[in-house]
Each structure stands twice: as C-alpha cells, then as structure tokens.
Design brief:
With about 375 residues, the chain is α/β, with parallel strands linked by helices. Strand 2, helix 3 and strand 3 form a beta-alpha-beta unit. The longest helix has 20 residues. It is globular. Nicotinamide-adenine-dinucleotide (NAD) binds next to helix 2.
Length: about 375
Amino acid sequence: MATVKFKETSPYVKPKPAPPEDDYLYKKYLEHLTLKTEKEPIVKVALFGVGHAGTIHLETMISSRRVQILYIIDDVKSKWQSIRKYWHLDNVTFLSSKQCDKVFKDSNVDAVFVATPTITHKDIVIKALEAKKAVFCEKPIAEDRPSTVKCYEMAKKVGKPLFTAFNRRFDPSYWNLKQRVHKGEVGHVHMIKRVAHDSPLLSLEYLKVSGGIFHDCLVHDIDLIVWVLGEYPDKVSVLAHANIPEIKAIGDFDTVAVNFHFPSGTLGMIDLSRNSPYGYDQRLEVFGPKGMLQADNRQLNSVHLYNELQGIITAPIWYSWPSRFMNGYKREFEHFLDVVHDKTESEVKSKDILAVSKIATACEESARMGKVVELIWTKDELPDNL
Ligand SMILES: NC(=O)c1ccc[n+]([C@@H]2O[C@H](COP(=O)([O-])OP(=O)(O)OC[C@H]3O[C@@H](n4cnc5c(N)ncnc54)[C@H](O)[C@@H]3O)[C@@H](O)[C@H]2O)c1
C-alpha cells in the first residue's frame, strides 16, 4: 500500500504527450500516415555510380516521395538491366559516363548525386554545376585541395548547392551529442575521444585507389571532432602502422593513433583501424569539468542472455557502415533536399571540407615524418561560429 497514494487519474482524461522532437522516424511515419503534403516540387535527380555508396542513395531515393529518378549513369552496362528489374525502374534512363552530357543538357534535372570513385568526382561536379544542377557528392569532393576549391568556387559562381556527404554528422547520436556539447552540458571540453574500427576489411582494389587511410577514412573522424568542437587543431601528432602485409605493400597504413591540440586547450584523440573482426566499432566521448557525454555502439537487437556464470551475452554490434549509419544517410538525404528547396542552410560548408582536408594532410605528414605538425589558420579558413 506504500504507493497507493501515488495512484493517478486515467491517461485518457489527460492531454496526450507529444512524441519527442528527435524521434524523426516517428515524425516521418506520421507524415505518411496522415498523407501530409507540402507544396514543394519533386526534385528530379540523376545518380552517378551504383556501387557500395550509390546503392544506399538509390534505395533512399526510391523510398522518398520527394524525388524522382530520371537518370542512372554507371559504366558497368552489364548491371543496368538487373538494377532496372530489381528496383522496378521502368522509366529511368541508363547511360554510360561517355553519354552523360545528356544529363547536363536536360533542363528537367534539378540535382545530381555523385557516388562514383573519388578520381571521377571533380569532372562530374564541375559539369553538373556548370549546367546549374544542385550537387550531392560523396566524400571527398576531389582528390586534392586545388580541385576542391575549384568545385566550391564554381558552386558559388552559379549559385547552386554543393553538398559533401559527411553523413556521420547526421547520425542521431552524434547530432544529439553535438547539440549538448554546444549547450555546455560538460562545460569547456577538455578531451574528445573517437574510436573508429572499420568492418569489414575493404578490398585491396578499393584501397589502391582510395587515396589512403588519411583522406579516405580518417577524414570522417576528423570532421566529427571539429564539427562537435567548432574548433580546428593547432597541432597534430600521429603514429601509424601497417599490420597487414598487403596494406604495407601498397604504402598505406591500417592502424592510426592521432593526438590533437586545440587553441582553447582541448585535447583530442582518434583510434582508427581498417579491420575490426567484431563489427563496426564507432564510439565518441567528450569529457569536461561538468561531466562526460558518450555515444556508444549500437547493437543488432536488445536481447540479453544470462547464462550460468558466463556473465551477460548480448547481440553483436552492427556489422558495417550501411547498417550502422543507415539513419544518418536518410537524414542527410532529407537535409540535402531541404537545402535544394532553400529551407535551410547546408550543415556541411566549404570551409569545413577544406579544413578537414588540411588536417588530414597534416596527420599524414606527421605520421610519415614522425613529427608534431603545427597548423596555422588564416581568418578566412576558420569556422564562422568562432
Ligand atoms: N560516406 C560514406 O560513408 C562512404 C562510404 C563508401 C564510399 N564512399 C565514397 O563513395 C565513392 C564511391 O565509393 P564506392 O565504395 O561506392 O565505390 P564502388 O566502386 O563500389 O562504386 C562506384 C560505382 O561507380 C561506377 N563508375 C565508375 N566510374 C564512373 C563514371 N565516370 N560515371 C558513372 N559511374 C561510374 C562504377 O561502375 C561503380 O558501380 C567514393 O568517393 C567513396 O569515398 C563514401
């Protein structure tokens, strides 16, 4: 009877609590359930590249009522028919890269998605912008800084969005963590720590043309750290090693330990590996004088087994990025469409992209030369919120 005094009135006679703002999946469900329509034109798109990344974007496009796919451009003609059949793309035109001018000349195309190998990005991005299309480009925009600058200058000149797909930012946990760091929940950040252990091990064919672990992989983690902090490092010190002989043979590394120093006194660390045998291990932790925020791994399900004296057995963590970051990809896609419709500013700005690339270059220099590398930033390079 100790709690009888807390008995309350029926929930039916009280106002119904609203779903939390952050439950974007439920919000989307309600939109579909109530057939909520907005007066916005459908964005007509062309997708370049249907490989590992392109397949994710294709699936998102097909499930979105905000876009219509007009063209798919991929050089492997043998898979066109299978893609058309699998996804029921009867009204989509398939082209090879040699025929892609058709896309740029078609005034019906509003936006171009680029998910081809990095070496091809610059050419497609520039042509698409020249043709006044909005561009969503897989990271990195280009192979080097001058080409990246050129792409952003073109975007500015033609007044069209050029969005780089740093999708980790759109992961609900990292998004929430960043908002809370900016609200001061841990105070001035003393330490930010990132663990990024990739799974599965990528093919050597991919790694050979990837641009190396610093620009292909570490950029995501650098971006996450500087985005959360709103600050760029002034010193980096990096150790790297290739434990896998085939990776050593191509002059790359599979394991990297990064230390950052930031002008405000914050320290940062990244523990990066190309090969995690137990799943896609992605953690982020921020520590300050008022507390600690932690974004932990996500598991396949929430079932726990208590078995004899074995401890608690739980499900594995997600196997790889297409599953772990699926919600991030979807939210990133919705964000890009909002940018195309001028409903919001792009969350990923040209300054961020150029800064991350500069930091990745400094990390590689530190690892290869075995020294601390200092980073000097001009006022123009610094984030706008500083
Ligand atoms: N944001 C992320 O999490 C993420 C994850 C994976 C890959 N990526 C990026 O996505 C890009 C593609 O990587 P991937 O792993 O999907 O590669 P992939 O090799 O699996 O796929 C590339 C596709 O592009 C096609 N292609 C090649 N040249 C083309 C051209 N000129 N025009 C049209 N199609 C062409 C290929 O036939 C292939 O189907 C890379 O820049 C990579 O860095 C990003």
